[in-house]
Amino acid sequence: MRYRPEIDGLRTLAVLPVILFHLGYGFISGGYYGVDVFFVISGYLITKILTQSIEENRFSMVDFWIRRVKRLLPALLFVILTTLIVTPFLIFKPIIKEICTDVFPAILSYFNFHALYNFGNYWGGKSNNSFFLHVWSLSVEEQFYLLYPFFLLFSYKWFKNFFYPILVITVCSFLFFVIYLSINKDFTFYMLPTRIWELSIGGLISLISIEKIKNTFWPAILSLAGIALVVLSYFFSDKTISNYALLPVIGASAIILFASPMNITGKILSTKFFVLIGKLSYSMYLWHWTIIVLFKNMDYQLHHVNRHVISASIFILTVLLSYLTFAFIENKTRSYRHTPKIVLVGITVIGVFTIYVANYFSIYYKSDCNKLTDYFRYYDISPTQVVPKKDNPIDYDMHMPNRLEKFSEAYKNEGIITRVNNKSPELILFGDSHGVMWAKLFDEILDELKLSRTFYTSTASNPFFDIENVGSQFKTACYTKVQRIDYAKSITENIEKWNPKLFVIVCRWEGIKDKDKKNLEELLVFLEKREIKIIILTQPPRLGFMENKNACQYFTYLKINPILDFGYVDLYNNESVTLGNNYLSSLKQKYPFVSVYDVFNKMTDNNKVKILMNRDVLYYDDDHLSYPGTLLSKKEIKKIIVENI
Fold first, then answer.
1. Do the Cβ atoms of 614 and 562 come closer than 8 Å?
2. How far is CA 454 from CA 425, 460, 532, 596, in A?
3. Spatial contact of 457 and 437, defined as CB atoms under 8 Å apart
4. Which residues, other chains included, contact 96 with Cβ-Cβ below 8 Å and sequence gap of 6+?
5. For residue 91, what are the contacts with CB-CB under 8 A and spacing of at least 6?
6. For a designed S-S bond to 373, which of 111, 390, 399, 415 qualifies (C-beta 3.0 to 4.6 A apart)?
7. How far apart are the first and last CA of the chain?
C-alpha cells in the first residue's frame, strides 16, 4: 500500500488535542475526539490491507494477527513494564496494587469492559487515577480486528462486494450509537458496538475512488472542510460524548479521502513536524496519560510548581520517551521475526511482577505515629453498613469497633441513644459520615455533662430528606426506600416527642446540592418552630492531594514524621469546601436559632492545615478528622453545649 505522509500528519492532528485535553486545558473541551480520528484512520488502513489481501487470495488470519501483535504490543508492554518498575519509587505504595489490577485488561484487550464496570464515567471519579485508562481505545480496536476480517471474508464470499456490507454495519452501529447516547453514555463511550461505525466509515472511504474529481478544485475544498470539522469538534463540542462525534469522523474521512500532495491540506499535513509527531503518535498516546497520572500522584510534592510548567514538563517527557520507544522498540520489533517470542517473554515478566505485588510486595509503611481507633462503624446507624474490604489500605493499623447489636435498627427506633437518669435526649447529633466522625467526642462530652443524647449519623448516606413529605423517600446506598421512610419518620416523630434543647448538624458541605439545601432549610424551620436551638459544624479542610487514603500512612510516605507540637501541610484546593462553609454562614444570618462552629478555622493556621499533634494523627483520610483531630475542639464544643442547654 502506498505510503501517504498526510495520514501521519492527521495522526498529529489527533494525538495533540487528546494530550491537551488530558492535561486539563478547558479551551479544548472536545480534545478527546482525537481518539475518534484515530478510529477512522485505523479503519481506513486495516480495510485497505484486508480487502487487497482477500481479493488476491493471500489473506491469512495468523499473519494478520502476528502483524497486529508486532505493531501494537511491544510498545504497550514496554510502557507497562516501565511503569511497574518506576512507580514503586515515586508514588504511594498501595497504588501499585491498583495499577496491577489494570495490567492484564490492558494487555489482553478488554480494558474497555474493565473501565466500564470498574470506573464508569471516563471524565471523573476512579477513572482519573488509572494509569492505563487510555488503552480502552486500543481494546476497542483489537476487538474490531478480531471480528472484522471474518466479516470481510464472508462479504467477499457471498456478495463479491465489500462496500455495501460495510455500509450496513456502519448504519446499524451509528443508529445504536445515537439511541444509546440517551440510555447509557458510559457504554456508548467505551464499547465496540457503538464505535464500529467510526472504524467502518474509515473502511468505506478506503473503497471509494475520487479519480473523476482528482484534478478539480473539489479535493482542496473538501479536505480543508475536513480540517475545519475536526478542529471545530475539539473546541466547540460537549464535554462528554455526544452527536458531535460526527464532526471529527466526517472531517477525518474527508481529509483521508481528499488530501494529497497536490493540495494545501496535504502539503501542511506532510510537513516534517506533522509527519514526525504522527510517526510518534502511538507511543505518545501510550505514554502521555501514564505520565499525567504519575504527576497527579505527586500532587503534594509539586503543588508549588506552576501548572503550565508541569504541563510543559509532562509534554517534553512524553515526546522524549515516545521518541526512544519509537526508535528502539517500535521500529526494531515491527519487522523482527522473533517479536512474538519477545512479546511472550514480556507478558511473562509482567505477569510474575503482578503476582509478586499481589502476594508478597508490602504496600504498608512503618509509622512512628500513634495507632488510631476508627469509630465510623460504631456510630453508624445505617441498616446496611459499609463493609470494609479485607486488607483495605485505608483501614490499615486501625482499631475498628463494631456497632453494638442493640443498635442494629437504631435508624428506625431512637438512634444510637444514651439516656441519663431515664431522661429523653436533650441533644440530637444528625449527619452523614462527618457526623459519625464527631460522635465519639460528643458522646464523651455529654457523658461528662450527664446529659441524655442520641445520634442519627450515617456513613455513606445523605442525611437530608423531604420533611414535609416524610412518606416520599428514595433508596440510597445503605437504605432501601422503606428503610429510608422509617428513618425519616423516626427522626421527625422523636423530635416532636422529645423536644430536645439542642440539635447539632454535621455534614460534608462541599458540593452540597440545591435539593439538599432546600431539605436542610425545611428542617431548620421545623426545629425553629419548636424553639430547638441549632448548632452546625463547618467542614474541616480537605487534603485533596491524598483523596481517600489512610492519612497516617500517606503522611509517612511524604516523610512527615511526628514532632513536638503541631505538624502542618499547606492549605490548597479548598475552594469548594469554603463555598460550602460560606453557605452555612448565610444560614446563621437567616435563622436566629442557628449557631455555626468553625471547624475549618480551628484546623488551620497561617494558610496551613494541622495534621499532627505530637504523635497523634489528626486526620483519618483526606476529609475526615480522626478522634484526636476532633479532640482539638473539645473545649469550645463543650462550652457551646453548656451555653445552649
1. yes
2. 6, 19, 15, 20
3. no
4. 84, 87, 88, 357, 361, 363
5. 294, 297, 298
6. 399
7. 86
The whole-number mean pLDDT for each consecutive block of 10 residues of the chain, a chain of 645 residues, reads 91 98 94 97 96 91 93 96 95 94 96 94 85 97 96 91 95 96 94 97 93 84 96 90 95 95 93 97 98 95 94 98 97 92 95 89 93 94 84 89 95 96 96 97 97 96 91 88 95 96 97 95 95 97 93 95 91 94 93 95 96 96 97 97 92
C-alpha cell read off for 57: 487470495
Residues 126 and 118 sit within 8 Å (Cβ to Cβ): yes
| Nearest to 241, CA basis, from 285, 182, 176 | 182
Q: Which helix (H) or strand (E) holds 292?
A: helix 272-296
Distances from the Cα of 449 to the Cα of 175, 414, 452, angstroms: 68, 21, 9
Determine the 3-state secondary structure of 367 from DSSP.
coil
Could you give phi then psi for residue 356, rounded to 5 degrees?
Answer: -60, -45
> 316: which DSSP letter?
H
**603-614: b or e for each residue (b if 16 or more CB lie within 10 Å)?**
bbeeebbbbbbe
Beta bridge partners of 595: 535
What one-character-per-residue DSSP string does 141-196 give? Answer: HHHHHHHHHHHHHHHHHHHS-SHHHHHHHHHHHHHHHHHHHTT-HHHHHH-GGGTH
- Residue pair 539/510 in contact (Cβ under 8 Å)? The answer is yes
Full-model pTM: 0.91
Grid cell in block for residue 63: 499473519
Instruction: Give me the residue label for grid cell 451509528.
Output: 174
